[in-house]
């Protein structure tokens, strides 16, 4: 009996163990507002973090350019195993005896040296290389700023997309609830002989038709949540609660004003400007390759027959030299590099012009899209209230025999369509505002203030 009870206890513990562990591993719900979502994405989004590493690379390139101004110092040690002996042969002083041989070792078994070098003049190439690296750093900062703006826009699009999916789900659930409520009313009227069997069947079919739409809408909310989690760089199994509503802000500037702002603020244009300056420094480097270079260097040598660091055991000497190099002919390589740099500068100038035109078009398009979204939103605000009132009147008229089942169904469908159109107009309005801010090149703080 005791053995059976013990086995029963073990079985119960084994059965409850996974459930208890799962309960302990349940992750807390992450509450997100728009600002919190943006901050989290800028901390955790892998693509944005990868872009930040470009700035780190550029900083290291600047340090590398600085190092070319500094002297270099190298140490070298050598242990000679293949000794070279010099043999001297002397005739014997005793007749009949072989000549005398003496071996002299001129090889020093151990040698060490310290060598240094310092550039004095390099035709301006060192200064140009440093400026080029510094401009590269500034260009990488603009790349990071562009990535930040794109990340913020993607967060807004996913965040507002989740709110839109949630609103669509609410519309679908309300439509289903209205249809179910109307079906119950028709059923009650049918039981007392005030509604036909056809009306009852039609109301049941309407409920059945709306159920898949409600299921699809709920699934869209889950998909939107997964997309938002991916942008934020969080685990897909983490439950989230999104706090916020779709609210539209009025347009705060004319197209001409925001175009000027965009041409001054867009990181792509700033990046092109720094790239052009880099090309200018490349041109200086190419032209400087035909100029002479001057450097000072020296070597300090030690050698000994024994690896013994006692005083007097090592011999030494040093040399200091001034090196001048003058290029005479390099197969027109310098001329080719100059041509490449000039062509790159012209390419960047044309690219800047084309990009400026594209940005002006993008800004004007964003302004027009925002204005259109605002007008659509205003036209849909009253439409929802009117559609809701139409449903109420249709249901009352049907109960009094003044309207048909089709009239009620049509009014309910119109209400769902009106709410859907209104929610879509709200989404289009907030997204067009976000697109306008991105097109202008506003930073995160400027977007908040506006």
What tags apply to this protein structure?
alpha+beta; 14% strand; 2 domains; disordered N terminus; 4-stranded antiparallel sheet; Outer membrane efflux proteins (OEP); two-stranded parallel sheet; 450 residues; 10 helices
Give the number of domains: 2
Q: What's the Cα radius of gyration?
A: 41 Å
Q: Give the helix level as a range of percent.
A: 55-70%
How many helices in DSSP terms?
Answer: 10
Total count of strands:
8
Plain-language structure description:
- The protein is α+β, with helices and mostly antiparallel strands and 450 residues long.
- The protein folds into 2 domains: 28-64 and 132-291 and 333-449, Outer membrane efflux proteins (OEP), CATH 1.20.1600.10; 71-81 and 101-121 and 293-326, Outer membrane efflux proteins (OEP) (Single Sheet), CATH 2.20.200.
- The protein has 10 helices and 8 strands.
- The chain has helices at 2-25, 34-44, 46-67, 125-191, 197-232, 255-265, 267-288, 333-399, 405-440, 444-449, and strands spanning 30-32, 72-79, 85-90, 100-105, 110-121, 240-242, 293-304, 315-325.
- The strands form 3 sheets. Strands 2-5-7-8 form a 4-stranded antiparallel β-sheet, with no helix packed on it. Strands 1-6 form a two-stranded parallel sheet.
- α2 (34-44) crosses α4 (125-191) and α8 (333-399) runs antiparallel to α9.
- The longest helix has 67 residues, at 125-191.
């Amino acid at each position: 009996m005791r053995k059976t009870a013990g086995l029963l206890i073990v079985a119960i513990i084994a059965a409850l163990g996974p459930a208890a562990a799962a309960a302990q591993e349940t992750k807390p719900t992450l509450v997100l507002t728009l600002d919190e979502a943006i901050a989290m994405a800028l901390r955790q989004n892998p693509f944005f973090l990868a872009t930040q590493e470009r700035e780190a690379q550029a900083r290291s390139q600047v340090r590398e350019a600085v190092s070319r101004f500094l002297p270099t110092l190298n140490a070298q040690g050598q242990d000679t195993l293949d000794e070279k002996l010099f043999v001297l042969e002397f005739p014997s002083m005793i007749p009949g005896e072989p000549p005398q041989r003496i071996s002299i070792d001129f090889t020093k078994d151990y040698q060490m040296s310290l060598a240094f070098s310092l550039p004095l003049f390099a035709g301006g190439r060192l200064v140009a290389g440093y400026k080029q690296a510094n401009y590269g750093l500034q260009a990488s900062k603009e790349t990071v700023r562009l990535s930040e703006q794109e990340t913020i826009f993607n967060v807004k699009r996913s965040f507002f997309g989740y709110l839109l999916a949630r609103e669509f789900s609410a519309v679908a659930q309300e439509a289903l609830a209205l249809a179910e409520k109307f079906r119950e009313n028709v059923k009650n009227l049918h039981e007392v002989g005030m509604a036909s069997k056809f009306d009852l069947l039609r109301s049941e079919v309407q409920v059945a038709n709306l159920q898949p739409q409600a299921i699809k809408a709920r699934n869209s909310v889950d998909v939107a949540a997964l997309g938002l989690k991916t942008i934020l760089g969080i685990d897909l199994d983490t439950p989230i609660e999104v706090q916020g509503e779709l609210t539209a802000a009025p347009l705060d500037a004319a197209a001409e004003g925001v175009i000027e702002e965009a041409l001054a603020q867009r990181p792509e244009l700033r990046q092109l400007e720094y790239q052009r300056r880099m090309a200018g420094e490349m041109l200086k480097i190419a032209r400087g390759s035909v100029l002479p270079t001057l450097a000072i260097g020296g070597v300090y040598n030690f050698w000994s027959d024994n690896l013994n660091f006692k005083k007097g055991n090592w011999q030494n000497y040093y040399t200091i030299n001034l090196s001048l190099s003058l290029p005479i002919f390099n197969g027109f390589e310098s001329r080719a590099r100059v041509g490449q740099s000039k062509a790159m500068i012209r390419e960047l100038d044309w690219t800047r012009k084309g990009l400026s035109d594209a940005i002006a078009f993008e800004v004007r398009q964003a302004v027009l899209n925002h204005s259109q979204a605002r007008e659509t939103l205003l036209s849909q605000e009253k439409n929802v209230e009117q559609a809701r009132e139409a449903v109420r009147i249709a249901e009352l008229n049907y109960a009094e025999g003044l309207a048909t089942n089709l009239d009620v169904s049509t009014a309910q469908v119109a209400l769902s369509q009106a709410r859907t159109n209104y929610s879509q107009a709200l989404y289009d309005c907030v997204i067009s505002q976000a697109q306008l801010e991105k097109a202008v090149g506003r930073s995160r703080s400027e977007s908040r203030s506006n």
